[in-house]
Amino acid sequence: QVQLQESGPGLVKPSETLSLTCTVSGGSISGYYCGWIRQPPGKGLEWIGYIYYSGSTNYNPSLKSRVTISVDTSKNQFSLRLSSVTAADTAMYYCATAGSIGYRFDPWGQGTLVTVSS
Amino acid sequence: SYELTQPPSVSVSPGQTASITCSGDKLGDKYACWYQQKPGQSPVVVIYQDNRRPSGIPERFSGSNAGNTATLTISGTQAMDEAEYYCQAWDSSTVVFGGGTKLTVL
Prior knowledge:
The complex is a heterodimer of chains A (118) and B (106). Chain A is mainly β and 118 residues long. Chain A has strands at residues 3-7, 11-12, 18-25, 33-39, 46-52, 57-59, 67-72, 77-82, 91-98, 105-108, 112-116. In chain A, the strands form 2 sheets. In chain A, strands 2, 4, 5, 6, 9, 10 and 11 form a 7-stranded mixed sheet that branches. In chain A, strands 1-3-8-7 form a 4-stranded antiparallel sheet, with no helix packed on it.
């Protein structure tokens, strides 16, 4: 059974870069779209972007200028970097995989809360 | 940009049928899926490709998608179904989520 686990700092200072990694176990990320989704406290889900295992990416236009998603197939991991963060980037960050464009995101990681504060 | 619209809240009595809608331009031409999220938990897929249920999801969950509206239907709603529900679709190669609907079972 494929499982995803997010990791990274839970506290980031304003204007700095948020960095998270998603480690996939129980299966290979090869052939999958690896996505990041976030959820501010008390609010809905927001798609951040995804990377195909081969390296092609697609980002939410509203975040595109600040987002970089990368993949390391040798480690079965993919990562998120979000630059110039503000308090508005405080959220639960989830990683999830989809089998193809048009498919569901399943499974999801348990999520990691990132707070932006000085 | 493409948008999906859901009602903020839906209420249903135990044992009754709950319907949650998700509207978007020509949504019926795309695949819609639905996620259930309970407090403190990650979202879980309950319907994908409009009307397919993942293994382990009760048969009382069903879905449809036509025209501009996708609908999640929960028949014989149980107290354990109280949760936030999100629809999601792909617009070309981008991912879009609806704003979420809080289902209250009372």
